[in-house]
Amino acid sequence: MKVLKFGGTSVGSVENMTNVKNIINDGEKKIVVLSAMSGTTNQLVAIGQDIEAGNSAAAVEKVTTLHETYKVTVDNLLQNGDLNASVKAYVANVFSFLESCASKTFCVNLENQIVAQGELLSTYMFNAFLNQEGVSSTLLPALDFMRIDENKEPDIAYIKENFKKVFEATPDSEIYITQGFICLDTEDQISNLQRGGSDYTATIIGAAFLAEEVQIWTDIDGMHNNDPRHVENTHPISNLSFDEAAELAYFGAKILHPQTVTPVRADNIPVRLKNTMEPSAHGTLISSVTAGDGIKAIAAKDGITAIKIKSARMLQAHGFLKKVFEIFETYKTSIDMITTSEVAVSLTIDDDSNLEPILAELDKIATIEVDKNQSIVCLVGHEVVNHDDTFRLFKILQDVKIRMISYGGSQNNISLLIDSKDKINTLQKLNTYLFELVTP
Ligand SMILES: Nc1ncnc2c1ncn2[C@@H]1O[C@H](COP(=O)(O)OP(=O)(O)O)[C@@H](O)[C@H]1O
Ligand SMILES: N[C@@H](CC(=O)OP(=O)(O)O)C(=O)O
To answer: What's the rounded Cα separation, in Å, for the pair 128 and 89?
Structure first.
């Protein structure tokens, strides 16, 4: 059995929901994971922000506007009178809950309940649509089986056991619809797998019952060799290894949640990226097979903070780096890139929520310089470090100021740290030097 995940755009309009219905209605039993309709999660996050800022009038206004768009969608989607009425009643219930949130005190639990409504809405509506179209489907509530542990990692044993229970309770269905992104935490409160987390839901479920394949259906024909939002002349990559896909996802290729391949790689479950609007396109197959050496793709991750730690104590001394790493460990902050010289070490973090106490500790042992608004540009491909054409990368030095380079840490990844304002220019130049010019 396969797991098919459809993202926000794929369920973002009646036309696209019809495409999804046609893709899944092939007589095979399958699990279908849905995201919220595109734009909804952003609106729900904005409603939470209004509540946090104490602006309940603005929150109510956003709730009302969003409700209006849902009423129109339900009318366009469901012509069957009974289904239309029952779905409208469900939708009205969700929006009256959201309105009631506007006058509550903000807390993370409240925010999580608010953002969870997007997936609850899309799955309820889509399941009713399938029923209207005569397709046999069952809604499996993700909150009955999807749970994260105290480290916010999926609780695989719990998920396996509970997924089996809910799945086996309705053995005769052909299509099982469930919500991506949302889950419970250890206190049984609603939580989520972070933005873009529906991809992760799909591979967690795929791993839970050893699916034959996980398919991620989106609005583009697979993983491209560069960010198509910023660079012209990108092209889809037909095959990626788990390692290559994991690096690209972690370093910012938005098409995949950073953790997408983690649950499935050990069991060698392939992940196929497909285009809902063009189902016949090959897309990208992510598997244990490595196809070819050299640079395959470039991705960029924003919101990086660089910290330079300079100390004469480093000179011919040992143990300094240990002290530095312990400080980051204490504040549960992971380090992405690192470069060293005899008297200084530069490193990057993508989570600066504990930056102040980290800097206060570092300040006791060294002189510190901090640069915010940095981006990591990451070049990925099997044996990229050893490939003959990789030298072309260094032509970039004539165009952009590079703050750090990580080369050789892994055979499959070269990372550059640049100021975020140079990101688009860097991605474009790298595209030209690495993929477009035949001779350097
Ligand atoms: N390297 C890349 N390859 C393909 N798409 C990319 C890449 N980098 C960024 N994207 C963007 O990712 C988008 C798809 O991801 P996302 O918006 O999360 O889709 P969905 O809503 O279907 O989950 C594409 O429309 C594209 O603009
Ligand atoms: N709706 C969530 C989860 C998700 O995965 O969305 P999408 O598949 O549209 O990226 C979000 O917007 O983050």
So the answer is: 13
d(Cα 406, Cα 239) in Å, to the nearest integer? 25
Q: What's domain 297-436's architecture?
A: 2-Layer Sandwich (3.30)
Single pTM value for the model = 0.93
Give the number of whichever ligand sits closest to the CA of residue 120. Answer: 2
Query: Does ligand 2 come within 6 angstroms of the Cβ of 8?
Result: yes
274-324 confidence digits (pLDDT tens)? 999 999 999 999 999 988 888 899 999 999 999 999 987 766 667 888 899
How far, in Å, from the CA of 69 to the mean position of ligand 2? 19
Residue owning the nearest CA to atom 12 of ligand 2 = 41
**DSSP 8-state code for residue 167:** H
DSSP string computed for 118-131: HHHHHHHHHHHHHH
CATH of 2-219, one of 3.40.50.2000, 3.40.190.10, 3.40.1160.10, 3.40.50.10490: 3.40.1160.10
Which ipTM score applies to this complex? Answer: 0.98
Ligand of minimum distance to the alpha carbon of 37? 2
Torsion-angle region of residue 143: left (phi > 0), alpha (psi -120 to 50) or beta? alpha
* pLDDT greater than 70 at residue 328: yes
Type of residue numbered 23:
I
pLDDT at site 397: 81
- Per cent of the chain over pLDDT 70 is 98
% of the chain exceeding 90 in pLDDT? 84
